[in-house]
TrEMBL record:
PANTHER family: CARBONIC ANHYDRASE, CARBONIC ANHYDRASE 13. This is Carbonic anhydrase. One of its GO terms (cellular component) is cytosol. Residues 2-289 form the Alpha-carbonic anhydrase domain. It comes from the Eukaryota.
Length: 289
């Protein structure tokens, strides 16, 4: 396999050829069977505490778009929940699919959402860097938030409005004064289990915290269908009366799909999907608060 990706020739089914841990005992994502989750009274409320000044840049690394944070001090941290100690915010990024029917990495009773936000933290109490923590069984804590097709999400525009400036792999832009809490749902109820990074090297160092309540995202497909239905009702050519500039706002998810997985000197290829399918649970327990 040349370089891993999400296409037929280098996608998740091939990753084990280079990263044998892909067949490990605590791989992510998983399909959460809600009936089999176990209530755990010892689980505490989640306590995200982020300083918007920690946000630094937004970038396209070829397999997702991420916002990177200054993690040289404990300015933006996650405590509580299943965690013992303080986990420092490192970055956030997204996973999505080529259509609205799939795109999330975790599934709930077999159901996939259109996309999934990952908020990545590392255990700064026990380890001295993200890279060191990523090699430890309790090194990372990733909060996952499902994105469900619906109304456009004004908070998400802060990110999707910037994607046209980082279309090419490797591009980055200043991105500060951003508190990722604005992308969290009202309820911070969660499921938690021990898993891994969902992208090579698939390190088995993640305490997963999957929020049960999704946030909304709009997409061209669903918006177009809604508008067409509306146009049928109105019997007017309603759609073409919207100035193109405004039409832009109804394509949040489509903007992720127009990012390129290729660099300047390569033949342009869109990053249409970047989700790994659910992996075997292998006897692991999923707890809920
Ligand atoms: C900050 O560095 C990171 C963050 C996340 C990942 C992947 O793992 C999960 S979870 N989502 C991913 O995209 C990663 O993989 C090498 C490195
Ligand atoms: Zn991720």
């Amino acid at each position: 396999m040349l370089h891993w990706g999400y296409d037929e020739h280098n996608g998740p089914a091939h990753w084990k050829e280079v990263f044998p841990v892909a067949n490990g005992d605590r791989q992510s994502p998983i399909d959460i069977k809600t009936e089999e989750t176990k209530y755990d009274p010892s689980l505490r409320p989640l306590n995200p505490n982020y300083d918007p000044a920690s946000a630094k840049i937004i970038l396209n690394n070829g397999h997702s778009t991420s916002v990177e944070f200054d993690d040289t001090v404990n300015k933006s941290v996650l405590t509580g929940g299943p965690l013992s100690g303080t986990y420092r915010l490192r970055q956030i990024h997204f996973h999505w699919g080529s259509n609205d029917e799939a795109g999330s990495e975790h599934a709930v009773d077999g159901m996939k959402y259109a996309a999934e936000l990952h908020v990545v933290h590392w255990n700064s109490e026990k380890y001295s860097s993200f890279v060191e923590a990523a090699r430890q069984s309790d090194g990372l804590a990733v909060m996952a938030v499902f994105l469900q097709i619906g109304e456009c999400n004004p908070q998400l525009n802060k990110i999707t409005d910037r994607l046209d400036t980082i279309r090419i792999k490797g591009k980055r832009a200043l991105f500060t004064n951003f508190d990722p809490s604005c992308l969290l749902p009202k309820s911070l109820d969660y499921w938690t289990y021990f898993g891994s990074l969902t992208v090579p090297p698939l390190l088995e160092s993640v305490i997963w915290i999957v929020l049960r309540e999704p946030i909304s995202v709009c997409s061209e497909q669903s918006a177009f269908v809604r508008l067409t239905a509306m146009r049928m009702d109105l019997g007017l050519t309603f759609w073409f009366k919207i100035p193109a500039s405004q039409r832009q706002d109804i394509v949040q998810l489509a903007k992720f799909r127009s990012l390129l997985s290729t660099a300047e000197d390569e033949v342009a290829c869109c990053l249409l999907r970047n989700y790994r399918p659910p992996q075997p649970l292998k006897g692991r327990e999923v707890r809920r608060n």
